[in-house]
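Sample intake sheet
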Amino acid sequence: MMYSIKNRWVLWGLALMVVPSVAMMSGYWAELTEVQKCIAEGMGFDYRVGECIEGRTIFVPFSERQPLLVNSGILLSMLGLILCLIGLYKKR
C-alpha cells in the first residue's frame, strides 16, 4: 500500500523542518572533517579562522560562530512545525 501526502500545508511544513536541519548538519560535519584532519596531522584548529595552526586553541561552539545559520534554521523548523499542525487540523 502506498501512502501519499496531498495536503500542501503538511508538505511545506515537512520541507521546512527537514531542509534547515540538513543544512546545519552539513556545515557542522564539513567543519568537523577539517578539525579531524588537523588533529591527525598533530596540529590544532583555530575555530575563529577555520584553519590549522601550531599548538592548542580554545574551542568556540558552532552556534557562536554561525549564529545566523543556527538561529534561522531553528526558526524555519519551528515555522515548519506550525505549518504541519495547521495542515493536520485543516479540513480538506
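Comment: The longest helix spans residues 8-40. The chain is about 65% helix and 5% strand.
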